[in-house]
Amino acid sequence: MEIPKLQIGNLIAEIPIVQGGMGVRVSLSSLAAAVANEGGIGTISAVMLGDINIHRNDYERISREALAAEIRKAKNLTSGLLAINVMGALSNVYDLIKTAIQEGIKILFFGAGLPTKLPSVVEDPTVNLVPIISSARAGSLILRHWDERYGRTADGLVLEGPLAGGHLGFTEEQLNHIDDYSLERLLPEVLESIKFFEDKYGKKIPVVVGGGIYDGKDIAKMLALGASGIQMGTRFVCTEECDVSPEFKQAYIDCKEEDIIIVKSPVGLPGRAIKNKFLEDVENNGNGKIKCHYKCLSICKIEKSKYCIAKALINSFSGDVDHGLIFCGKNAYRVNKILSVKELINELVQELKQHLSPN
Ligand SMILES: Cc1cc2nc3c(=O)[nH]c(=O)nc-3n(C[C@H](O)[C@H](O)[C@H](O)COP(=O)(O)O)c2cc1C
Fold first, then answer.
1. Is the pLDDT of residue 256 over 70?
2. Is this prediction's pTM over 0.85?
3. CATH classification number, 6-244+335-355, choose in 3.40.50.300, 3.65.10.10, 3.10.20.30, 3.20.20.70
4. For a Cys staple, 247 with which of 79, 175, 319, 335, CB 3.0–4.6 Å?
5. pLDDT over 90 for what percent of the chain?
């Protein structure tokens, strides 16, 4: 049976799989290009790409140059579909978006913050704007605001559920009742809430769902529920092409279900990570006084925080996992080997074909 393609604007991915943007430096050009070469959408995370030991006056320029270089590298590796992922909480978010557009990126995933003024920054209609949401309410809020203010609607939405990795769009209280916020429950509400805007703008707003999707059977289930595609993060970490250190990947392979916990990050949001020496040290005594050279995240509460999240994520990226935060999805404990992106996608596609419903 033919697997459905994923259309965002006038761009068509041959397979309905989006590799989710993963900061810091987890999803760079090598991973994104490999996914794009297999017919999916490969996403570069634009977060903290440049050297971090710099003067604050250089921060924006260095970040911009590093993102441009990463996009160029990816474009040299693929002619497939590439996207960037930005966090609304980044202090230089709009500067990064403009850079990505100048470099020819046509799909923009925007999470961790409401993209209220995004359409005024990105006027080019060929750039597809895809907010990441965790509820129908957040989606409606964005679409209503864009409609009233800019006469524009989204080109897609990513619905990220509570099983995802990294920062989560749920409160700790909600995460204690995870089943109430399952994708199976949230997706129909989102699909219902966008109908008005689909009718008004005469176009389909594809909804891509992510968070805990592990195999082709999960993908088939989400497509049957009305998702146009799925987004995966965790499984792409343990691929040969993912740029994180071998130690980071090994932490995924070694972890057990009970090692995967919810942490409160310095930005005030809950996140999912692997319990390790770093988190134990933070719990016991913190990391001492933290110097912040440039406020990379506008919502970071560094004065109250026990560690710098950018530094902690870069440490684990580089292999110093004992001093690093290792974000992961709820299903990371199921990963037991490193595959190439080609092998992983082939496996997912085979499983998906077996489980696709006939209608
Ligand atoms: C290590 C890691 C880092 C992540 N960083 C980001 C990020 O910077 N921005 C974002 O929107 N999502 C981030 N995510 C979420 C992923 O893009 C994706 O939506 C999510 O992981 C999907 O769930 P899964 O990991 O269960 O497949 C991250 C996930 C992981 C595992």
1. yes
2. yes
3. 3.20.20.70
4. 319
5. 81
Pocket of ligand 1, beta carbon within 6 A? 20-23, 26, 45, 47, 85, 87, 111, 132, 160, 163-166, 210-213, 231-234, 237, 327-329, 331
pLDDT, one tens digit per residue, over 328-347 is 999 999 999 999 999 999 99
Give the model's confidence band at 359: pLDDT under 50 very low, under 70 low, under 90 confident, else very high.
low
- pLDDT mean over 316-320: 95
Range 170-190 average pLDDT: 96
Q: What is the mean pLDDT of residues 198-223?
A: 98
Range of weakest confidence among 31-35, 58-62, 180-184: 58-62
Sign of CA dihedral 175, 181, 183, 189: negative
Integer Cα distance of 70 and 64 in angstroms: 10
Own/partner pairs for 9-13, CB < 8 Å, 24+ apart? 9/106, 9/107, 9/126, 9/128, 9/155, 9/156, 10/126, 11/81, 11/106, 11/107, 11/128, 13/39, 13/40, 13/41, 13/81, 13/229
**Residue 232: Cβ-neighbour burial (10 angstroms; 0-12, 13-18, 19+):** buried
Taking alpha carbons only, the member of 233, 325, 320 closest to residue 279 is 325
Whether the CB-CB separation of 352 and 214 falls below 8 Å is answered with no
41 CB contacts (<8 Å, ≥6 apart)?
Answer: 6, 8, 13, 17, 18, 19, 35, 81, 82, 83, 107, 229
**Nearest CA owner, ligand 1 atom 11:** 111
> Quick one: tokens of 83?
């996207």
Question: What are the residue boundaries of the structural domains of the chain, listed by start?
Answer: 6-244+335-355, 246-323
Instruction: Output the CA 85–ligand 1 centroid distance in Å.
Output: 10
